[in-house]
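Collaborator request, handled under Task 6.
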Amino acid sequence: MWLQVRMYLLIGILFGLLYALITGIAMAIGGAGFILFFGLAAGLVLIQYLIGPLLVSLVLQVRYVTEQEEPELHRMVGELAQEAGIPKPKVGISEMTLPNAFAFGRTRRDARVCVTDSLRRLLSKDELRAVLGHEISHIKHRDMAIITVLSVVPLVFWYIAWGLMLAGTARRRGGYLAPAAGAFILYFVTNLLVLYGSRIREYYADLGSLELGNRPHHLASALYRLVYADANAPEQAVRQAAGLRAFFVNDSSRARREIRELKEIDSDMSGAIDSDELAALRSSKMSPSISDRILELWSTHPNMLKRIKHLASLEPASKA
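Structure tokens returned to the collaborator:
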């Protein structure tokens, strides 16, 4: 419930700021000039929305597979989709090197769930099902549409700010500079708010995976394995995936920092997190460093230690 409340507050703040900017610019430069800038911004956002799934498929090197080609993967996705009460998404395999999974599309009926081969080799069946449950939950909660809508706000600010700068320069009118500067500042602020919204949706998808029948320690163990694999991956592979991290289950670019903290959770050094280890984390005083908390502000994903501690709060206590 608290995750939903925070999301509604965030949406209200973002669109309140957008309304304030629209009103201010319309008063400063007149309705006709504003309509031109806003129309250009809206048109660019619409084009991005329409061609987005195609671009994602190309950039992430997705090959869609049939049930005959990948029966086990289709079975997992189908069962989870049925449990979530949504249409079964298209299933794809990404040729990317780093292990990961992702979901994208414009609507529930247009949704696609994809995994890399390296992810399937890395995880157990229970861990893979937990990760797929996370992605199915993104679709169930309409996170793709929500984040797209939220992302429109800073994009509109960005396009309007540059439009005002260019118009002011061309017409040598200094009166455009103040609203342009205001739009740039609001772009910066709203971009941070959208990133915060994205982190809320990740927590919400983790919870959604548990609601689909997955155990907290299976998802926590999968996240731990992903961070460990990314931390030991070639630097070039991590850099190539950096621009795509918003789609993934975790932020691979932060893995080398995060693994130092997460290793303390794996007390038996097995390379996984079992139910006892996760339950023990619940009472642990482990927390991210100040620098990691600051870095989190610029990320689409929560700090992994915080995220796994949240899962620990949902893990039943050990009976030992």
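The cover message to the collaborator said: "Strands lie at 62-64, 90-94, 101-104, 112-116. The radius of gyration is 21 Å. Please let us know whether this matches your experimental observations."
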